[in-house]
Write a structure and sequence with these properties.
The chain has 305 residues and is α/β, with parallel strands linked by helices. It is built from eleven helices and eleven strands.
Length: 305
């Protein structure tokens, strides 16, 4: 399966105020992050309301955390990490992709309007940036080629992030068999592959599985580009994934801790976010997801009652 194109779409961030600099730089005493901001306190209450919708993390053999032990990152730690946020100078996210539907989900998920660029062919890859997969024999492109060479040269000055999807399989270095995707905060660029997500044209079930995997990886990598670390507390879209089985059991939403990070970073009220995602899934005709987000929206509506 030699598909040699990569695809681009661009997301334009809505103008909004990021007024959390003071809280983001709060000092940590006794190793416990401090929250003094009223908005952060409200988000903590909302976290508790949606907690019943998520399962605690349970690590299985072969999972990400078995190979890469991590401490995770709760909301308070995120605030104190001085996270990368959209700015007045950089209000555009550029993402490359084949499916308009993923752009629409990105808009609802992160509160980012979307533009879709034309697809481009990938050619003239340096020999030291590609290989044949040692076990499977197909051609792979080194993710560093995108992250360090190709995408930074194409990065617009006003881009908060510039991300591409490719139909080529990716690998990060010779010690890895493959990687689903990678992103870098320093260069504000990211890349991920559709190669291992299956054939969406085989059946309705295969299409839904392909779409689910694509949405999860796209939202996950974009979260990293706004300083969100892997989640280890819940089964969460931001949890690390070592294989497709692990990806498939993750939900199509972030957990309470990561929801609060998105709400904080994007100035995106949780109730409005859940309502937007409900409408998205209603459009797709996915009843279970629509029900889940509807219930979350109803749960967080209790704040202020």
């Amino acid at each position: 399966m030699q598909r040699r194109k990569f695809y681009i779409f661009i997301l334009l961030i809505l103008s909004f105020g990021c007024s959390n600099t003071e809280t983001s730089n709060q000092s940590v005493t006794n190793n416990q992050p401090q929250i003094t901001d009223e908005r952060a306190a409200t988000l903590n209450k909302i976290k508790d309301l949606i907690m019943p919708f998520f399962k605690p993390m349970r690590v299985q053999e072969g999972d990400w955390l078995k190979s890469f032990p991590e401490n995770g990152q709760i909301f308070e730690e995120y605030l104190n990490s001085n996270p990368t946020l959209p700015t007045a100078e950089r209000q555009t996210i550029y993402i490359r992709k084949i499916l308009q539907i993923t752009a629409n989900y990105m808009k609802a998920f992160y509160n980012l309007p979307v533009k879709l660029n034309a697809e481009q062919k990938l050619k003239n890859v340096p020999k030291d940036m590609e290989r044949k997969n040692p076990g499977e024999g197909h051609r792979q492109i080194k993710s560093g080629y995108f992250l360090n060479d190709l995408l930074p040269k194409m990065l617009p000055q006003d881009a908060a992030a510039f991300i591409c999807f490719t139909n080529f399989d990716l690998y990060p270095d010779e010690n890895w068999n493959y990687v689903f995707g990678q992103a870098t905060l320093e260069n504000r660029v990211g890349v991920w592959s559709l190669w291992r997500f299956g054939g969406p044209d085989k059946s309705v079930e295969d299409y839904k599985l392909f779409l689910s995997r694509t949405l999860k990886v796209a939202m996950h990598e974009t979260g990293h580009m706004f300083s969100m670390l892997h989640c280890t507390k819940y089964e969460c879209l931001m949890s690390g994934s070592n294989h497709l089985g692990e990806t498939d059991r993750r939900p199509l939403d972030v957990c309470p801790e990561c929801m609060a990070k998105i709400a904080w970073a994007m100035n995106y009220e949780p109730k409005r976010r859940f309502e937007s995602l409900t409408k998205f899934w209603e459009t797709q005709g996915w009843a279970d997801e629509k029900k889940s987000f509807t219930e979350k929206a109803e749960a967080v509506s209790k704040i202020g009652e």
